[in-house]
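Q: Could you write out the predicted structure for this multi-component system? I'm mainly interested in how the pieces pack against one another.
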Amino acid sequence: MGKETKELLVLEDILGSNKKIASSIRKKLTENGILAINLLSAPGSGKTSLLEKIGQKLKNKHKIGVIEGDIETERDADRIRKAGLPAWQITTHGACHLEAKMLAQIFDQIPADLDFLFIENVGNLVCPASFDLGESLRIVLVSTPEGDDKPKKYPEAFITSQVLVLTKCDLLPYLPFDTDRVIKEALEINPHLKVFKTSATSGEGLDELGAFLEAELKQRRSQHA
Amino acid sequence: MGKETKELLVLEDILGSNKKIASSIRKKLTENGILAINLLSAPGSGKTSLLEKIGQKLKNKHKIGVIEGDIETERDADRIRKAGLPAWQITTHGACHLEAKMLAQIFDQIPADLDFLFIENVGNLVCPASFDLGESLRIVLVSTPEGDDKPKKYPEAFITSQVLVLTKCDLLPYLPFDTDRVIKEALEINPHLKVFKTSATSGEGLDELGAFLEAELKQRRSQHA
């Protein structure tokens, strides 16, 4: 058998500031028609569960990769691989957020023919919001058990995102969570937020979110064609 | 009416490193027989709800104060005041954790005759773990909807705490949460953790936690008498 010649992504410049590296990453991903999506939330809001389910929906038609950011352990990457998706783990060993340089270090492992590259950030609703990773779309998640008062208490993540995904909506009957309040408050901070109500358990809202991501991919590719 | 002469806490030194300021705060609180308790958790784990309920249990017999750390808004302090407890808000305006110098800046507002001083940190399971605030007891909270895999993914908060409080246990029938797993894992990281299973909704475990805090106060006062 001949040597495998799978094309991989190569960054010209992995030095410089976070912003500069993030711009290089975004340029390279966009040139390759890859839609990179940075997922931000508190610990336990359901980022990995959402990716397992959305990934399984999209993978029949699209090529998907997942970068998993965690302080310790490779648990989330293992879950994603069990769901049949390739995953690259970045373990920060204490650092509270991903930075573009961490992505740059594993960038040459990522296939150039992906459609979607999901980046699951460290579970932290604060610090990751300040670091551009070169994504084209940022999604902030709020799980219903966290309470409906989060947007104004943690505004940066909502200001810098384009999409708000409410997760664990199957638990609404058991919680004092006012869906209208959280959406109203989030839109006061960022009127451009696109909002999805979802549950990885019941499947609610996942088709809509999947269709939205497919439309975003198509639109962005046509813009950069 | 004469001028009010309520005794307040005064710090000798509010300059210097976090560690130095924290030591000054701890010394002053301990001299005054105040048990300071730093509460750490992810956003929405139920720190404020726990304080509302524990505060109401303890306030008949003890004098209680609450410092509320938040990135933005005074919502949590308002909730604590509505529960009949004095609260001092520290709004960090973007900073992801409390530091001892922030407490030092409001320290002269805190009555010297408190029994318990609760410090609700910014909702963040990562960064606050690295900052000593001069507390004598650190409690880490994990809410059941966050999942049972948190201790090894976010170890620092569990290593530096003396107490683990599982919150929202009333939701257990609706969740894939293995209580034994999370306790086992937390104790592997820190075998000295004292664990409480609680629910601010059902009241489960609150008497036990309250009794533990009263016993801690008594024991620490006898040590420093």
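A: Regarding packing and overall arrangement: The mean pLDDT of chain B is 94.
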